[in-house]
Amino acid sequence: MAPHRREVPVSTSSEPGEFLALLTPDEAAALRAAGRVRRWDRGATLMTEGDVSDWVLVLTAGRVKVSSHTASGTEVVLAVRGPGALLGEFSVIDGLPRSATVTALEPVEGIALRDFTAFLQQHGRIAVLLLQMVTSRVRDADRKRIEYGAFDTTGRVATRLVELAERYGKPANGGIRVELPLSQDELAGWTGASREAVSKALRSLRDRGLIATGRRRVIVHDLDGLRRRAR
Predict the structure, then answer these.
(1) What average pLDDT score do residues 133-148 get?
(2) CA triplet 204, 207, 210: central angle to 5 degrees?
């Protein structure tokens, strides 16, 4: 863990629907009082798959990838999380090892909280919110499994780009600019495809005029068209 951050996080406000954004000001203050602020540089590992630990993290700035590895060593990206996200809650609740590795895609900051179970016992409404959030994540995981069977690679790549544009996109030159902190290998791991297939899918989307790409960035020129291709 890095004691100091040399870079400024890109994302700094809680995303709508994420854990921190659902709390009342008093609940958020209680959370901050119960935990302590931690910071990591880009590329740092926050949590490691297989570790046993008793703390959770609420992101307050920056984005991370949540990933796992297959028996052959292939990385599978499960999700990209941003400010407001709660990480590590499964392991704390059930006492089992971490089910995924969390890696900083950019400099990140968060509130680390030990004895999360006791905190939930003192804040019943937050416990209900957590249950709702976990249910939502299970539904999202089910939806992605359906995508892998029903969509081709280009459709899955388009779906992920729509998600990134809606969550992190900013208006730019008549389109939506997404500073993409994922490499093509990581995007491949997020879509369940090879790097070559993802590269071909991006080229297809560019040829249709839906997107333009650069180094770790995408500009969406036609979000509705991208949504249609995703479906």
Answers:
(1) 76
(2) 90
